[in-house]
Amino acid sequence: MATEDHPRLAEYVTARREQLGLSVRRAAQLAGIAYDTWRRIEGGTKKVHRPNIAKVDPTLEWAPGSAIGILEGREPIPIRETKEAPGADISRRPIEDIDRAARDVIQLATIATASGLTADEIRELSDRAVRDLRNAGLI
Length: 139
Hints:
This protein is mostly helical and 139 residues long. The chain is 58% helix and 0% strand. Helix 7 crosses helix 8.
């Protein structure tokens, strides 16, 4: 695993929480994590488990995987329209539908471009691509 930049995450989380007008206590409550855990995230400590870090995404109106992405050097993806991302909005489609549509597109592309793969190999490739896209916060 690459080096995680906890101070960078702390800066992003604090700035976004303040932008949304949330207190630390309220943000932690909305995220379903302990107040002290949120404080450790904003303090830039490495002593926060990744599942707890991931819980800040919905509270900060970021796409799933955004907070973990910040640790790894990427930018968060807002899911509501903001000054930074005009036109961005929350998807109204259930996540399962988005995953299914992504798998369908990947499977068709694989079938059209790759020869010699079995149906199981195409399904495995599609599932992996969807997992990777989700982990990167793209879907």
